């Protein structure tokens, strides 16, 4: 895919008539007006995305993009790169946190090698490797723009295939040591913030190491002098293959009218990148939680997305998004098996605003 082809993509506007029909159904259910708060809004959003008031989230999957990051060479993470391949292998065996949650939530895990630094294939992963990890972005751009576009196309392809296979909702997840550094650098560039205010501890760092990580992000910003509207250059220069792949998942989901649930800070950066590259994608994004990483809040504010879970999660893999699957299923129990005001022979609440 070329940059021109990507930027020419058009996203349909969500179906407002379907959104209104869902809202009307909520108001007819025997409960206080707006009693399920944001869950009513989100179910209506899913109606607008899919174009129907009949909400079906029976088949769901979390797409976990696994990739390595050359910036790990700069001691920005407590773990070594080899851990990415170890955890990715556990994905296949169902042994990671997201696999356990997905099993409980009735969702499939689609784990993808989009750039693990390992020569041998890990059997069971979807093979979409662009390269064996990115370059150290303090020394040279993490990847070329052509590679970034290739990874975006891979993510779009996976989302579109999920659509053909009947998945009704997708979640984004990732695994990649060092990807909170790439995310922080991208968020700082996309939002034009300082490294200081946007860079967090990731999977765990001492105070000294956090100061060093901020310094690394700051040096990268000085080196590349990004403008906020250069999303593709930002992604290629300081991003990762996981972020690029997830950017593609958000774009592909929007094209196919599939709601995509956003997870932590890495997913949030991918969502913002997708929106900057192809405006309109954000209408197809379903919130889940607000990551502990400081960049997350700023990105959600920019996107106008309101996460419903504020629990200090910072696990990644798609875990918070899968929790949201369960919450949505619970809310749908009320929506699908309606007890209406008519059923209980009671006057419906009147909406005054
Ligand atoms: O999702 C988040 O917001 C999040 C916050 C902190 C850490 N992580 C996970 O931890 C790993 C990256 O941490 P680090 O410190 O190596 O950059 C990566 O595999 C992510 O899935 C994820
Ligand atoms: C074991 C482990 C699991 C993870 N999941 C997301 N990031 C991770 C980092 C580590 C180290």
From TrEMBL:
Protein name: Nicotinate-nucleotide--dimethylbenzimidazole phosphoribosyltransferase
Record gene name: cobT
Function: Catalyzes the synthesis of alpha-ribazole-5'-phosphate from nicotinate mononucleotide (NAMN) and 5,6-dimethylbenzimidazole (DMB).
Keywords: Cobalamin biosynthesis, Glycosyltransferase, Transferase
Known pathway: Nucleoside biosynthesis; alpha-ribazole biosynthesis; alpha-ribazole from 5,6-dimethylbenzimidazole: step 1/2
InterPro entries referenced in this protein's UniProt entry, alphabetically: Nict_dMeBzImd_PRibTrfase, Nict_dMeBzImd_PRibTrfase_bact, Nict_dMeBzImd_PRibTrfase_N, Nict_dMeBzImd_PRibTrfase_sf
Record family assignment: Belongs to the CobT family.
Molecular function as annotated in GO: nicotinate-nucleotide-dimethylbenzimidazole phosphoribosyltransferase activity
Tagged with keyword Glycosyltransferase: yes
SUPFAM superfamilies per the UniProt record, alphabetical: Nicotinate mononucleotide:5,6-dimethylbenzimidazole phosphoribosyltransferase (CobT)
Pfam families linked: DBI_PRT
Catalytically driven reaction(s): 5,6-dimethylbenzimidazole + nicotinate beta-D-ribonucleotide = alpha-ribazole 5'-phosphate + nicotinate + H(+)
Keyword Metal-binding carried by entry: no
Top enzyme category: transferase
Organism name: Caproiciproducens faecalis
Upper taxonomic lineage: Bacteria, Bacillati, Bacillota, Clostridia, Eubacteriales
E.C. numbers: 2.4.2.21
């Amino acid at each position: 895919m070329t940059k021109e082809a990507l930027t020419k993509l058009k996203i349909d506007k969500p179906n407002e008539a379907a959104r209104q029909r869902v809202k009307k159904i909520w108001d007819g259910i025997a409960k206080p007006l707006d009693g399920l708060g944001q869950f009513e809004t989100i179910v209506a959003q899913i109606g607008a995305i899919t174009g129907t008031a009949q909400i079906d989230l029976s088949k769901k999957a979390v797409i976990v993009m696994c990739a390595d990051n050359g910036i790990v060479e700069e001691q920005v993470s407590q773990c070594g790169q080899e851990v990415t391949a170890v955890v990715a292998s556990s994905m296949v065996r169902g042994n990671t946190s997201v696999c356990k949650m997905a099993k409980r939530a009735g969702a499939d895990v689609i784990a993808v090698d989009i750039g693990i630094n390992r020569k041998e294939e890990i059997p069971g992963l979807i093979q979409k490797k662009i390269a064996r990890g990115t370059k150290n972005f303090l020394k040279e751009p993490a990847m070329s723009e052509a590679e970034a576009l290739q990874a975006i196309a891979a993510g779009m392809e996976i989302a579109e295939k999920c659509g053909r296979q009947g998945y009704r909702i997708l979640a984004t997840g990732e695994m990649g040591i060092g990807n909170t550094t790439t995310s922080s650098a991208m968020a700082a560039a996309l939002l034009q913030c300082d490294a200081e205010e946007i860079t967090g501890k990731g999977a765990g760092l001492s105070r000294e190491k956090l100061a060093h990580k901020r310094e690394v992000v700051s040096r990268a910003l000085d080196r590349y002098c990004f403008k906020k509207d250069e999303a593709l250059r930002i992604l290629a220069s300081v991003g990762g293959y996981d972020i690029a792949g997830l950017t593609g998942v958000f774009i592909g989901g929007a094209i196919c009218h599939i709601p995509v649930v956003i997870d932590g800070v890495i997913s949030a950066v991918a969502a913002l990148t997708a929106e900057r590259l192809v405006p309109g994608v954000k209408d197809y994004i379903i919130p889940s939680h607000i990551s502990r990483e400081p960049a997350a809040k700023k990105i959600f504010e920019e996107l106008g997305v309101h996460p419903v879970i504020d629990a200090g999660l910072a696990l990644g893999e798609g875990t918070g998004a899968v929790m949201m699957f369960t919450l949505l299923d619970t809310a749908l129990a009320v929506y699908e098996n309606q007890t209406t005001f008519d059923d209980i022979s009671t006057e419906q609440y009147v909406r005054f605003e």
